[in-house]
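Hi support team,

I submitted a single chain yesterday and got back a structure, but I'm not sure I'm reading the token output correctly. Could someone confirm the output below corresponds to the sequence I sent? I've pasted both exactly as they appear in my results page.

Thanks,
R.
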Amino acid sequence: MSYTDKIKKTYQDQLEQIRNAGIFKEERFIHSSQAADIKVEFPIGSSLKTVINMCANNYLGLSSHPEVVKAAHDGLESRGYGMSSVRFICGTQDIHRELENRVTEFLGTEDTILFPSCMDANAGVFEAVLSNEDIMISDRLVHASIIDGIRLCSAQHDTFKHSNMQHLENKLQLHSDKRIKLVITDGVYSMDGDTAKLDEMVELCEKYDALLFVDDSHASGFIGKTGRGTHEKYGVMGKIDIITTTFGKALGGASGGCVSGRKELVELCRQKARPYLFSNTIAPVVVSGVLKVLDILSESTERRDKLEKNTTYWRKGLTDAGFVLKEGDSPIVPVMLFNAKLSQDISKDLYNEGIYAIGFFFPVVPNGQARIRTQISAGHEIHHLDKALDAFIKVGKKYGILGLTKQEIIQKYGL
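Hi R., thanks for writing in. Yes, this is the structure output for that exact sequence:
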């Protein structure tokens, strides 16, 4: 047998080291639909507990919306469970192209292509549209899926300091000789909650004849006056060359993603992007649900408006209580703790108080940047936020971190 006791012990030792460091990630089993209140089994085998979910990507509260669920049921009945194929063989239904057209209209682009997930979109797009004559210049904090996509591409790669426009300009000047220059950024940075300076980035790209790529997964549906995304927020709709985004967060919360942008670039993805060519089509049930989500968003901005108010209320409550927060202008509000074990301990205590909020630490965030990442939803009511604030304050007092600065927390608990 090739899996010897020696090899087995190698992996057991690695897992034990993670446990001893207090950073072993334990999954929590949810026994209800995704919502502000969820039923959770944690630890495994324990009785169910109802808690307030403060860390889902369910920004608009649409994951279990009755109209979305009904549309999914209707799609299941009319188009079946799955396609058993990739798009270019026999995996394209009329509703797939309908969703692509609707997303194109929603985002204000020229064309759209669906992928099984946004991670697949990011894995396929760079290799499809760039060659070794080109350069990718990415913000140093881009999402892990973007980094994976960059690694799969033969184009050269360079980075610029996070949201530092002068450093980006320096890199654009440095690589002025390249055939195509592609600047790469997140729209909203998922760990910190800040937004990219897209207006300034568009200006620099126009100045230096570069293309601009934006992953807007944590923005589509709720950032901007009508929820189109960060390009709407910064007044540059129609000026972003490539947008990738997901249907697994605000736009229904199921799965699926897309590349949307310049027609020629989208068509190249259709011809060359490997995750598109070799992965099954998004299930019809998901497509039907997302189409209904877009209907709901076209009728009113009520949900994104409520989300904005909830976010302001939550951020002010945490700030007044004395927590150290990352500055940001999105529903992602990180409570900074800096120490990985502290983030785990506080997460467990919050759970005991009826609040579901996960600790994040290396390698998800850089060493010394551990945190509880809270995410606000339009599904939250004020009573949810008040209860969560009370729990955060109670646990914060237990660990003596309220009112402490970053340096004081580090001095007390270490990195």
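A quick pointer for reading it: The mean pLDDT is 96. Let us know if anything else looks off.

Best,
Support desk
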